């Protein structure tokens, strides 16, 4: 942060699950409803905490090739794109991490692995399906129903790597569109069927909320981040701070959160930093819409599990990726897009005047 600026820091609440006879019940019935992050200690997450040494992992995957974010900077920057994607044999990747850990600086590149499905365009990652050699070592806590699980992701990072501030949206490989008839949403159709859209549909809306540059359908997820090895420093930001984070899609443009340039990002001074550390065996609950930024204080291994937090009736039963709340958000955003288009046709001084009026009106009525 700049010289005389003191960020507002709050520690994330921490609970030791061994102090409860049935922690999962307490989580589901009380803690979960608070919708705030929570560090949970002493959950049974399986033998991974003891077993997952670099040697063990290399033996499991002698021939595996992995796709990595590779950067010469510790601070990954999605705007400057200071990283590239590279494929590397898993054993070489781990050898390099070990060299970095032991202070051998001959390799200056930093690595970040986020596991993908077999076909990253179509599959979400499922550890049980894509990493069966390791799935016996990890126990998913019963904090959610198995049917609610959306994906499980395996992450390995070099010491020092900082992952940009973001919130998570689950993404699926099939692009869906909405069709409306008599101004009511009728159904979603896959992109492959667009050319067959019957004439009687009055409009086809592409999915736009939450926004994805490639138009993939998305839904918002709850998450647990299971720390298996190493230490992470995590800063979370409340969805209430959304106006202060300079968002670009699902990511914040403020990269260096601990030394922010307040001339460029003055509103960031308002943000409350919810901080915690995770060590091996710790679990962090990240409620949907909470932003998070991760600094790996050592090289680390983690697994995270995304699950849909809304009850089943919120989801469109004919489409596993849909949810009615988001359908509404999607159609509202399409209307906002039309309003923007209209406003942009006004002469400049009217444009500014009416933009301010409409923004204030929405704020007054909706917040
Ligand atoms: O720990 C990390 O590397 C990133 C975690 C994360 O973004 C997540 O669990 O959603
Ligand atoms: Fe995330």
From TrEMBL:
One BP term from GO: wybutosine biosynthetic process
InterPro entries: Cupin_8 (IPR041667), JmjC_dom (IPR003347), RmlC-like_jellyroll (IPR014710)
Occurrences of domain JmjC (ranges): 111-324
A GO MF term: tRNA binding
Domain of life: Eukaryota
Protein name (record): JmjC domain-containing protein
Species the sequence originates in: Helobdella robusta (Californian leech)
């Amino acid at each position: 942060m700049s010289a005389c600026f003191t960020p507002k820091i709050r520690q994330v609440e921490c609970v030791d699950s061994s102090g409860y006879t049935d922690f999962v019940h307490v989580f589901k019935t009380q803690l979960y409803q608070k919708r705030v992050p929570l560090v949970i200690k002493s959950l049974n997450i399986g033998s991974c905490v003891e077993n997952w040494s670099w040697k063990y992992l290399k033996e499991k995957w002698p021939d595996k090739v992995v796709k990595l974010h590779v950067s010469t900077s510790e601070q990954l920057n999605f705007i400057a794109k200071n990283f590239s994607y590279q494929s590397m044999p898993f054993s070489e990747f781990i050898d390099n991490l070990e060299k970095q850990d032991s202070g051998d600086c001959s390799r200056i590149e930093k690595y970040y692995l986020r596991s993908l499905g077999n076909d990253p365009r179509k599959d979400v990652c499922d550890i049980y399906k894509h990493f069966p050699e390791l799935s016996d070592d990890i126990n998913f806590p019963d904090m959610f129903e198995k049917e609610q699980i959306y994906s499980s992701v395996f992450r390995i990072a070099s010491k020092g790597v900082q992952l940009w501030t973001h919130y998570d949206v689950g993404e699926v490989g099939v692009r869906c569109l909405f069709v409306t008839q008599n101004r009511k949403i009728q159904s979603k159709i896959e992109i492959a069927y667009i050319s067959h859209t019957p004439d009687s549909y009055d409009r086809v809306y592409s999915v736009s909320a939450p926004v994805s540059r490639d138009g993939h359908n998305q839904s918002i997820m709850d998450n647990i981040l299971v720390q298996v090895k190493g230490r992470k420093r995590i800063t979370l930001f409340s969805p209430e701070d959304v106006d202060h984070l300079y968002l670009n899609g699902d990511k914040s443009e403020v990269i260096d959160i601990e030394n922010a340039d307040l001339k460029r990002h003055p509103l960031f001074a308002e943000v409350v930093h919810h901080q915690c550390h995770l060590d091996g065996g710790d679990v962090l609950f990240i409620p949907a819409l909470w932003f998070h930024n991760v600094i790996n204080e050592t090289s680390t291994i983690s697994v995270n599990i995304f699950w849909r937090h809304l009850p089943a009736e919120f989801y469109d039963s004919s489409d596993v990726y849909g949810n009615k709340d988001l359908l509404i958000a999607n159609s509202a955003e399409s209307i906002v897009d039309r309003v923007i288009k209209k406003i942009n046709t006004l002469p400049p001084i009217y444009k500014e005047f009416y933009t301010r009026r409409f923004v204030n009106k929405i704020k007054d009525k909706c917040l």
